Amino acid sequence: xxxFSFIExxxxxxxxxxxxxxxxxxxxxxxxxxxxxxxxxxxxPEGAFRVGRTIVYPTPSxxxxxxxxxxxxxxxxxx
Length: 79
Fold this sequence. Notes:
With 79 residues, the protein is of the alpha+beta class. The chain has three helices and five strands. It has one domain. The model has no long low-confidence stretch (mean pLDDT 88). This is DNA-binding protein.
């Protein structure tokens, strides 16, 4: 079984990522609106902060959060 590790992307990404850009960096896997909703419920990535009017996430925290929310899909279903 091959699993994907988001953490390995750390070196290829900027140190912080704006909420509005997350979808672009991750191929539309999660939208800015979904992130905003999860943040409001206290379920978003840890360490989010504001730069002016923009919400940003520390990349390592965002990647760890995405990894935690991910499931590997095998030919027989979700593992």
